[in-house]
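Weekly sync, protein design subgroup
Attendees: M.S., D.O., the rotation student, P.L. (late)

Item 1: inverse folding check
M.S. brought a backbone from last month's batch and wanted to see whether the design step gives back something sensible before we order anything. D.O. pointed out we never logged the input encoding, so this time it goes straight into the notes. Structure tokens as presented (376 positions):
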């Protein structure tokens, strides 16, 4: 009996983490806010949701074959598809999707997926963050197999407008509802928050103890409530800044995030490290350390170029003395030695994080905010 109870409890927990995304969804252009979206979204989405992955295929028409599917992990892990690195997190039945896109122009995509209206509508709030700025879009998809429920005029007003303001136009808040509204909103440990660096940081000029200043690049919601508005302030510290050695060793930069301040002045302290950074180099998420790239290719190129130049000069001198081959060999050897000395005397690349660099903060503890604190 105990085993059956545990099984039923596990089944309930698994179902609580389902977003109800499975099905075929058709884009509703009239209700969507696409504005100047550079890439037209898929006209039809075909979704298959399991306990650990959401398989999503984009179609141009409902009758056409699906394009290559993209898998979104639903178990808290991250998944890399080519230049795309995807991580997700559940917020109730809403799915928060964080995507870092690497390439000639790195950028980030933050999305919130939510199935509503009795399973008939899928709303995707999408924010694309680039170094030049950010754009926000709202994509509305209708389930082709589920009819929307019949709504009263009051329900339609609340659904299509500002729900809170619409509700106040119909009735006043009762004392019991006021107690419900005076609640806490909790950001759980592991919550990822996308940040944008406002001051530049590098291993050449930045010393340990230097302050770093950032702002939140996208808003953060808890149970549909805006908790951290976009543009909130985050302050941190450079705990280590190390340049690359002349013979071995790569440059490294350790960052620590310490304070979050909302636009209304409410502040919280914590200690967190970067979970991802949109920059060259490798991030050790367990240490919050950004390691610079190696320069072996550059050293080899320097040595080869110097050796070639030495061979040319040696050949000219040897030809003048009647020993062209010997002169070229001696010149090449001397050039190689000079190139090696030059390579050993130079440092590897520095870690450089220019202003506008995006990175993710991963909370190490829960942050609580009350309704009163969130009032602007």
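Designed sequence read out in the meeting:
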């Amino acid at each position: 009996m105990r085993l059956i109870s545990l099984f039923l409890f596990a089944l309930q927990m698994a179902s609580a983490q389902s977003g109800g995304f499975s099905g075929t969804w058709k884009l509703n252009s009239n209700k969507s806010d696409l504005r100047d979206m550079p890439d037209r979204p898929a006209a039809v989405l075909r979704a298959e949701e399991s306990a650990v992955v959401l398989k999503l295929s984009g179609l141009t028409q409902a009758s056409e074959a699906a394009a290559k599917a993209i898998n979104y992990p639903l178990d808290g892990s991250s998944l890399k598809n080519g230049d795309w690195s995807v991580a997700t997190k559940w917020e109730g039945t809403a799915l928060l999707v964080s995507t870092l896109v690497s390439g000639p122009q790195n950028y980030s995509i933050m999305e919130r997926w939510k199935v509503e209206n009795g399973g008939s509508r899928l709303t995707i709030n999408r924010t694309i963050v680039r170094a030049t700025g950010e754009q926000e879009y709202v994509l509305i998809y209708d389930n082709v197999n589920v009819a929307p429920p019949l709504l009263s005029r009051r329900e339609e007003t609340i659904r299509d407008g500002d729900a809170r303001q619409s509700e106040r136009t119909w009735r006043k808040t009762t004392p019991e509802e006021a107690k419900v509204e005076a609640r806490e909103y909790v950001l759980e440990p592991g919550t990822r928050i996308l940040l944008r660096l406002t001051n530049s940081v590098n291993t050449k000029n930045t010393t340990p103890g230097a302050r770093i200043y950032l702002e939140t690049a996208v808003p953060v919601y808890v149970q549909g409530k805006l908790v951290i508005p976009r543009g909130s302030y985050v302050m941190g510290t450079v705990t280590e800044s190390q340049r690359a050695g002349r013979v071995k060793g790569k440059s490294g930069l350790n960052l620590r995030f310490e304070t979050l301040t909302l636009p209304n002045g409410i502040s919280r302290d914590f200690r967190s490290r970067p979970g991802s950074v949109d920059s060259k180099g490798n991030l050790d998420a367990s240490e919050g350390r950004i390691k610079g790239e190696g320069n072996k290719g550059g050293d080899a190129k320097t040595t080869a170029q110097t050796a070639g130049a030495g061979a040319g000069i040696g050949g000219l001198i040897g030809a003048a003395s009647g020993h062209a081959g010997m002169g070229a060999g001696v010149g090449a050897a001397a050039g190689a030695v000079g190139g090696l000395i030059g390579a050993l005397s130079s440092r590897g690349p520095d870690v450089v994080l220019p202003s506008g660099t995006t990175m993710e903060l991963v909370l190490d503890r829960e942050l609580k905010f009350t309704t009163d604190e969130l009032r602007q």
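Discussion: The chain has three domains: 18-149, 184-294+350-370, 296-344. The CA atoms of residues 314 and 331 lie 4 Å apart.
Action: P.L. to compare against the previous round before Friday.
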